[in-house]
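User: Could you check the structure of this?
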Amino acid sequence: MWIRKPVWIDSGDQLQQKTFHTKYWLNAHSNLYLGTQNARRRDMKIAVSGKGGVGKTTFAAFLIRALVDEGRRVLAIDADPDANLAQALGVKNSDEIVPISQMKALVEERTGAKPGTMGQFFKLNPKVDDLPERLSVQIDGVKLMVMGSVKTGGAGCVCPESILLKNLVRHIVLARDEAVVLDMEAGLEHLGRGTAMAVDRLVVVVEPGRRSIETAHHIRRLAGDIGIKNLSFAGNKIRSDTDKNFLLKQMPDFHFLAFLPYQSSIIEADLEGRPPFEKDKEGLEIIKAAIKELEA
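Assistant: Sure, the predicted structure tokens are below.
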């Protein structure tokens, strides 16, 4: 039976809600998402950001493992130019993974333009819906994709590599039904406005330190600019109540999702090439409790 059902249309810069007569899950590449009777439940889409060195990737790894332990299908996205998520998840020979931004033949195939060449026309809406299956690395119930960065001068690059990455992230956030965790850089470069509005939660990792707190304020402003409404913070490397109280005093109007204690075992795990959650069970339990709060 045909039904009238509202769906979200991704028009690139913004999401628009319209009503269609439909009974089928529309093809993801048509950019029509969310909303027919045959679609599976859409799971959480969480972006993680923070100043370099605060333990952002470690937090993302804990979050991914906690979701997997709950029996969820998880797609992990390393969207940080300093890509370390694969190593944090325990992927062997992680340095051999080629970031998608460096796959020149793929970029040219999908956009119609050769990377690094000036003055070309290229597709603004390339096909990307098959890439999560084709390009992901699987480990312990997790699909991992490494985005890479666009190495070019200036800000706001509109180039084939950037267009491909942004369309891929948009597809993953809007069209995929598994849980998604994005390990982002502080600048949130891969999130356009329409994609950002569909992220269920942005978690900013912060440590007791003024530079880390300044970065957290900066990220909050960026998040507001691109339409992220649900924003939480996680205190990391907490050595004592003094550290925790310092963050609460310096960030009084910020919502803290969790506080993770400083653990030397995480350093040991890194030296041994093991995931941090194998050594720090306490941190993993804290993140599992945080997930329950996100779902409440």
